[in-house]
Design the sequence.
């Protein structure tokens, strides 16, 4: 290992050709970029030739000057970050990171130093007191996440990429029984029979709408934001023989509990905090402009309806686990085997949470990088004929590492494909 002044050299490098291209795209000369970054023009020349590597702070200033993300300079795609990438993205040198970590209990317990942190980032063995104690080392990702300003799961994923031959540093705690299910059941029992039917049918209509939104995404059609489509049409303030009934009204009519308009039952549910009602104005071909009443379930209302229908409560995944939905996606990709899953099979939001190169929302965190679009080359090798989803190495490691815990939490998800992969890599 190389040192300067007794400290490890920076190990994060930029792609020189990318820097030159981004500088030209931004319309900046070497001298202007140097002025904005706070270095000499000669140093920018060295950066573009690959002879020097900027410090984390200078890398941040360079990205700001070029109006790009740090990963555009380094060539690291979203969902492929290692531990050193997280530190550089936070603009911290080894010294600064160690200084912050030494203020924490785990930093002191591990006697953290710049050489030790550098070894951790480079995937080399870290020697010293408590470094063989999994319980102590398992507290380090939380401390790193705090100083880097990222979720713990990002640190765990980066750790597993950086140190592929080690077990995951963090294992989820056994979930404790919470009182939320009891309160949901109590809320359901407090309703009369008519109110229970209303709440149950609204939940079913919401699920049907969610399925419709998924189908629209599958066919590449525009989809409104959840905050909009979750407001379900209940009634139109116009004669039913002119405007007919909404789907939700038809559900209630089949159950023999339909009220005209918004109805006293809906207002009672809203007063209990189980629903939110709102109105807007829509155009009807025959009735013209009419007022529409919409209802939206609250978290409490959704939990009460699930409890009343005998469904188990939704489990919030502990770090670093996935939600049941995303774990199901991973299982589907694994089930597809070596050939991978058809690209269009994951046309919803899943790639933005799991796919390499994706970000789950504007200015949001990068996805976990557990799946990637792999090109399928024509038999003659002349061109790409399509893309298929496959698990990345860290995605496979995550699935194998936490398979037993996922099976315990989400027993209804078919993990046959994951188990087969786990057997191959055991």
Sequence:
């Amino acid at each position: 290992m190389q040192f300067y002044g007794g400290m490890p050299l920076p190990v994060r490098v930029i792609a020189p050709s990318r820097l030159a291209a981004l500088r030209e795209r931004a319309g900046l000369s070497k001298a202007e970029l140097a002025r904005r970054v706070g270095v000499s023009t000669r140093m920018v020349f060295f950066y573009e030739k690959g002879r020097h590597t900027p410090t984390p702070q200078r890398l941040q200033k360079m990205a700001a000057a070029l109006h790009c993300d740090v990963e555009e300079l380094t060539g690291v795609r979203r969902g492929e970050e290692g531990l050193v990438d997280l530190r550089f993205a936070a603009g911290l040198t080894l010294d600064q990171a160690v200084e912050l970590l030494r203020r924490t209990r785990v930093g002191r317990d591990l006697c953290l130093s710049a050489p030790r942190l550098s070894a951790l980032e480079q995937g080399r063995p870290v020697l010293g007191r408590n470094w063989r104690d999994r319980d102590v080392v398992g507290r380090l990702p939380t401390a790193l996440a705090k100083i880097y300003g990222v979720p713990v799961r990002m640190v765990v994923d980066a750790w597993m990429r950086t140190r592929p031959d080690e077990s995951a540093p963090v294992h989820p705690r056994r979930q404790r029984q919470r009182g939320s299910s009891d309160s949901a059941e109590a809320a359901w029992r407090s309703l009369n029979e008519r109110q229970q039917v209303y709440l149950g049918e609204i939940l079913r209509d919401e699920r049907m709408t969610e399925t419709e939104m998924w189908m629209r995404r599958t066919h590449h059609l525009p989809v409104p934001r959840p905050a909009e489509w979750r407001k379900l049409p209940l009634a139109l303030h116009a004669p039913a023989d002119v405007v007919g009934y909404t789907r939700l009204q038809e559900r209630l009519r089949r159950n023999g509990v339909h009220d005209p308009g918004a109805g006293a039952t809906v207002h009672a549910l809203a007063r209990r905090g189980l629903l939110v009602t709102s109105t807007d104005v829509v155009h009807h071909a025959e009735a013209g402009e009419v007022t529409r009443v919409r209802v939206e379930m609250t978290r409490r209302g959704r939990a009460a309806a699930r409890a009343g229908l005998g469904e188990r409560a939704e489990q919030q995944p502990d770090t670093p686990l996935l939600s049941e939905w995303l774990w199901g996606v991973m299982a589907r990709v694994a089930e597809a085997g070596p050939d991978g899953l058809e690209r269009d099979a994951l046309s919803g939001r899943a790639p933005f949470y799991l796919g390499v190169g994706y970000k789950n929302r504007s200015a949001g965190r990068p996805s976990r990088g557990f799946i990637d679009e792999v090109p399928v080359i024509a038999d003659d090798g002349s061109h790409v004929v399509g893309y298929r989803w496959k698990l990345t190495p860290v995605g496979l490691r995550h699935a194998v590492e936490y398979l037993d815990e996922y099976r315990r939490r989400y027993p209804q998800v078919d993990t046959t494909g994951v188990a087969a992969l786990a057997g191959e890599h055991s």
Observations:
- The mean pLDDT is 84.
